[in-house]
Design goal:
By secondary structure, the chain is mostly beta strands. It has no helices and 15 strands. Strands 1, 2, 3, 4, 6, 9, 10 and 11 form an 8-stranded antiparallel beta sheet that branches. Strands 5, 7, 8, 12, 13, 14 and 15 form a 7-stranded antiparallel beta sheet that branches.
Length: 217
């Protein structure tokens, strides 16, 4: 099995908000007022070519992000009450990357990890939920507390899906976007760092990638 950090990925689609400038530190004089609550969906897709298995693994991650936006002083926007709803991950086996012809797997493992991309909001999980919190290395934030869930699937199948309906991930903290007069303020970005391990009989392969879900009102 190849190392979990080895990635051979081709991005297929990112159906989320635009990526712009990053979130900034809070100005000392900022004061949040009662704001509007938004829910925005995201869909992220990547494909991984596995030479040992002679097939392709398509990873699809989807769900929605709920957050409250308030207007701060000047042109700042304030994001808080951040939550990832129904974060779902699916691995589909294809005959080759870019094709519609399906293939099969005999076992699979899906691990979802989530954290806030500007490294200012902390992940929070409810007691008793299948999510856990662990400190792991991240691309943007170095060692960071991440919300994590790992699931293993057995039996021959074309897809394995990790459903998390009714099991949201919450974030504590307040984020400040902007200021900008000529450009729209920065979107709210969360990072998903999934790892998949796929098997075809006695052979296996693993892939890890970081995917950004950026949403805005």
């Amino acid at each position: 099995m190849k190392g979990a950090t080895q990635v051979r990925a081709a991005t297929i689609a990112v159906a989320v908000g635009a990526l712009t400038t990053g979130l900034m530190s809070a100005p000392a004089h900022a004061a949040a007022a009662k704001g509007e609550t938004f829910t925005r969906s995201y869909t992220l897709v990547k494909e991984f070519n596995s030479k040992p298995l002679k097939r392709c693994a398509r990873l699809t991650v989807w769900g929605s992000v709920t957050f409250t936006r308030t207007q701060g002083p000047g042109f700042y926007l304030i994001y808080k009450n951040i939550k990832v709803n129904n974060p779902t991950a699916r691995v589909s086996a294809l005959a080759k990357c870019g094709s519609k012809k399906s293939s099969t797997l005999t076992k699979g493992t899906i691990t979802q990890r989530w954290y806030e991309s500007s490294c200012k909001a902390n992940v929070k999980v409810a007691v008793g939920f299948p999510w856990a919190v662990s400190v792991e290395p991240t691309v943007e934030c170095g060692n960071r507390r991440v919300g994590k869930r790992k699931t293993t699937y057995t039996g021959t199948a074309k897809t394995y899906t990790q459903y998390n309906s009714g099991r949201p991930l919450s974030f504590t903290g307040t984020l400040y976007a902007g200021p900008s007069v000529k450009q729209p303020p920065a979107p709210l970005c969360l990072s998903a760092k999934p790892t998949i391990t796929i098997y075809a009989k006695s052979k296996s392969d693993s892939f890890t990638t970081t995917m950004k879900a950026c949403v805005k009102p």
